[in-house]
């Protein structure tokens, strides 16, 4: 019996590329251990930083006898990639490297990731499996509006789509008018971009009087590279009629396609035959049992150019215990709506922009365009949320606007327990994104 006959997906026949998704658990664990051992050996032999750290702990590659022994290994962090810039973590000779990608940091030099032909293949397979899981097939026309280039979004989805046999339209980011024109004229059925860029496309389309449900053929949206909420998903689906899928990935681990949600939407399946997930307590660094929330850590199991051992992603989530109704044996993580890096500390309270987004979008007539400004007056942190509302609402009388402001403020306060100043603005007045959006201005940093 072929492996994919285990499949019980909703109404999408299982694509052959999805076969490994249904691998029996014992077989999966054995494969993971085998690959982990090979990766640890490769890194120990080729990467001086990791070898030194393992030696300091008295750990040798042969000590990895079970998957649990992964806890013996040192962690890797983004700062290691910076310190070892550009190629200190290389574990393959340069003649085997076929492509570089970079991830920009907020300060200083970017981090560089080197991919062998094998790494590109592993990444493409994972992205193909994600797209197949979302329900895309070779008959789909996939518009890739992620940026092409050093960023992994564009090329990642491009090769994933081509691998699946889709007709790929590589628009990259920007030039929104042309994006909408091609989307309509070619009858594009799937789009891949950041959620904020898709909002921008919707916004510009509506301005032109486009009825997305009637005039476009969009069935699938593949969104990732920035945190977004369930409320945002619902809004995008309601306006356009497409099904919004969550794709997760990061350049350090390969790019988009590390995990994605299946039709049951009960978390994101990690393609853990390639990328081994752990969740740790970010303070004690101890591994947490499945079900407990903490920081997500990944080990690449079969990458060879720059393998990552226990890479700390700074993303907060948990591994969802139990099996999914879809029959996939790949474990699931809860959707990542918070990155430690995005966390704001306001009056001593930890606040994530996604929490504010959830509060905003729970109110009718609020548009999904907002900007958060944090400042300090005297010793007190202040929080202002600027948000667009519909033109009709904006033209309401002062009393109605005041009532709306109060409702929004209360909705946010219920979630984060902080009283925010709400500024309502007209549609199309806040900055839009051509890639990843910047939703927060923290003026305290300049003081
Ligand atoms: Zn599932």
Description:
There is one protein chain. The N and C termini lie far apart (66 Å). With 447 residues, the chain is α/β, with parallel strands linked by helices. It has 12 helices and 21 strands. Bound molecules: zinc ion. Residues 262, 264, 269, 324, 326, 328 line the site of zinc ion.
Topology (elements, then pairings):
Layout: H1 25-46, H2 48-57, H3 78-83, E1 97-103, E2 111-116, H4 117-134, E3 141-144, H5 152-164, E4 167-169, H6 176-185, E5 190-193, H7 195-207, H8 212-215, E6 220-223, H9 230-240, E7 243-250, E8 255-261, E9 268-270, E10 275-280, E11 294-300, E12 311-317, E13 319-320, E14 332-333, E15 338-339, E16 344-346, E17 349-351, H10 353-361, E18 366-377, E19 380-389, H11 391-394, H12 398-416, E20 421-425, E21 440-442
Parallel strand pairs: 3-4, 3-5, 5-6, 6-7, 18-21, 19-20
Antiparallel strand pairs: 1-2, 7-8, 8-9, 9-14, 10-11, 11-12, 12-15, 13-14, 16-17, 18-19
The structure holds zinc ion.
């Amino acid at each position: 019996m072929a492996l994919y006959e285990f499949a019980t997906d909703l109404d999408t026949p299982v694509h052959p590329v999805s076969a490994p998704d249904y691998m029996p658990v014992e077989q999966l664990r054995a494969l993971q251990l085998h690959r982990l051992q090979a990766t640890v050996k490769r890194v120990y032999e080729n990467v001086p930083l990791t070898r030194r750290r393992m030696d300091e702990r008295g750990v040798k590659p042969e000590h990895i006898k079970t998957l649990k022994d992964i806890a013996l290994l040192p962690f890797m962090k983004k700062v290691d990639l910076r310190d070892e810039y550009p190629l200190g973590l290389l574990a393959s000779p340069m003649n085997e490297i076929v492509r570089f990608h970079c991830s920009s940091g907020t300060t200083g030099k970017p981090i560089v990731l080197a991919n062998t032909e094998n790494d590109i293949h592993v990444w493409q397979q994972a992205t193909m499996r994600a797209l197949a899981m979302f329900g895309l097939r070779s008959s789909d026309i996939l518009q890739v509006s992620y940026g092409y280039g050093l960023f992994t979004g564009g090329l990642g989805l491009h090769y994933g789509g081509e691998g699946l046999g889709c007709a790929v339209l590589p628009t990259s980011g920007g030039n929104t008018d042309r994006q909408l024109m091609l989307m309509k004229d070619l009858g594009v059925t799937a789009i891949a971009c950041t959620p904020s860029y898709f909002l921008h496309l919707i916004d510009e389309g509506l301005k032109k009087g486009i009825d997305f449900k009637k005039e476009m053929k969009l069935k699938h949206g593949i969104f990732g590279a920035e945190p977004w909420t369930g409320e945002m998903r619902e809004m995008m689906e309601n306006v356009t009629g497409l099904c919004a899928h969550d794709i997760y990935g990061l350049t350090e681990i390969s790019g988009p396609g590390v995990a994605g949600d299946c039709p049951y939407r009960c978390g994101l399946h990690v393609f853990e035959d390639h990328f081994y997930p752990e969740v740790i307590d970010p303070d004690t660094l101890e591994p947490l049992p499945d079900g407990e929330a903490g920081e997500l850590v990944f080990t690449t199991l079969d990458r060879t150019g720059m393998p990552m051992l226990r890479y700390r992603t700074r993303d907060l989530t948990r591994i969802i215990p139990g099996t999914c109704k879809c029959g996939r044996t790949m474990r699931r993580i809860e959707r990542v709506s918070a990155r430690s890096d995005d966390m704001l500390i306001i009056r001593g309270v930890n606040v994530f922009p996604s929490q504010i987004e959830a509060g905003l979008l729970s109110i009718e007539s609020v548009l999904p365009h907002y900007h958060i400004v944090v400042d300090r007056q005297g010793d007190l942190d202040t929080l202002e949320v600027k948000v667009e509302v519909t033109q009709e609402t904006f033209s309401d009388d002062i009393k109605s606007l005041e009532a709306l402001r109060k409702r929004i403020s209360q909705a946010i306060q219920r979630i984060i327990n902080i009283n925010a100043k709400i500024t309502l603005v007209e549609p199309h007045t806040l900055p839009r994104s051509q890639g990843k959006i910047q939703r927060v201005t923290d003026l305290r940093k300049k003081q």
